[in-house]
Amino acid sequence: xxxxxxxxxxxxxxxxxxxxxTARANLxxxxxxxxxxxxxDQPGGQLMLTTEVENFPGFPNGIMGPELMVNFxxxxxxxxxxxxxxxxxxxxxxxxxxxxxxxxxxxxADAIIVSTxxxxxxxxxxxxxxxxxxxxxxxxxxxxxxxxxxxxxxVGGGDSAIEEASFLTKFASKVTxxxxxxxxxASKIMxxxxxxxxxxxxxxNATVTALHGTDTLVGATVTxxxxxxxxxxxxxxxxxxxxxRPNTDLFKGVLDMEDNGYLITRPGSTYTNxxxxxxxxxxxxxxxxxxITAAGSGCMAAIDTERWLEAQHG
Length: 314
Ligand code: NAP
Hints:
Layout: E1 2-9, H1 13-24, E2 30-32, E3 52-53, E4 63-64, H2 65-78, E5 82-84, E6 90-92, E7 98-102, E8 105-114, E9 118-120, H3 128-131, E10 136-137, H4 140-143, E11 151-155, H5 159-168, E12 174-178, H6 188-195, E13 200-203, E14 206-212, E15 219-224, E16 230-233, E17 237-240, E18 244-246, E19 277-279, H7 291-313
Parallel strand pairs: 1-2, 1-8, 2-5, 8-19, 10-17, 11-12, 11-17, 12-13
Antiparallel strand pairs: 3-4, 6-7, 7-8, 9-18, 14-15, 15-16
C-alpha cells in the first residue's frame, strides 16, 4: 500500500495539468494514468488518437497530439509527479483516506482528482483503428481545417452531428450528413440550419458500413437500412458524431452524475458531491470538450485540491 497526498485518475490534458500544478505545489501526486488500448500504445486520453493539433495555444506550427501529451507528462514528471501505467479497478471514497485499487494493489490519498475523460462513440468498423486521425475524425473543431475544398461526410442525426456538419461547411466543398433514420434527433433550430444549408446534403436511412483507404481515407460504403443497397461515397473525410460516453462506470453510485453519466461538479469549481474528491476535463464537460478547456479545468482542480487540503490541515 502506498499513500499520497493526491491521486489523479486519468492522464489526458486535464489530469496531466492537474499533475503539473499539484506537483509544483509539493503535493507529490500519483497519476494512475490508464493503460495502452487497442487504438493507442500509451495512455494520455483522446489526443493520443489525433494527428496534428493546430489550436493548442503556444504551438504556432501545430504539434502532433501524442507529442503534446508526452510533453505534458514530462513536464509533470519534472516536478515530481509519479505514474502508474494501469487502470484503477476499484475505489472506496466512503472514508478518508480515500482508497483506489489497481487489481490487488491498494493506494490511498488525502484527495482525489478524477480526470478519466470521455470517449467518442464509434461505428465499430475494423478500419476505424488505422484511419482515425487519417481522414476519420470525431472532432470537427479540431480537424475541420484539414478538409478545405474536400468532400466529406458526417454520421449522426443529433445536435452534435448537425453542429459539426454546419461547422464543416466553412471548409468542405460538400458535406453529406448520413443518418440512420428519416428524421433528425437534433433540435428544430439546428435541423433548420442544416436543411437550409446548400453545402449539406442529407442521406437518410443509411449507415456507414465500411471505410476505405490504407494510409488515408478515400471513401466510405453507405448502406441503405431498408433495402440493404450499398453505394460508395468518394469522401476524404468522415466525421463520426453519434455521441460521447464519459468514463464514469467506476464512480456509479458514489459520485453524483447526470443521466448521461457525466460527473456533476459544483458550478464554477471542480468540487464533486464528496468533499476532497474533485473532477475535471471531459468527464464533467459535455459542452466544450477541447484539450485547452480540459487543461484549464485540470488547473482548477489542482488549485481547489491544494486549498481544500490546506483547509483540512489548518
Ligand atoms: P445524441 O443526441 O445522442 O445523438 C446521437 C445521434 O447519433 C442520433 O441521431 C443517433 O441516431 C445517432 N447514432 C447513435 N448511434 C449510432 C450508430 N451506431 N450508427 C449511426 N448513428 C448512430 O448525441 P449528440 O448529438 O452528441 O448530443 C448529445 C447531447 O448534447 C444532446 O443532449 C444534445 O442536445 C447536446 N448537444 C447540444 C448542442 C447544442 O445545443 N449546440 C450541440 C451538441 C450537443 P438516432 O436518432 O436514430 O438515435
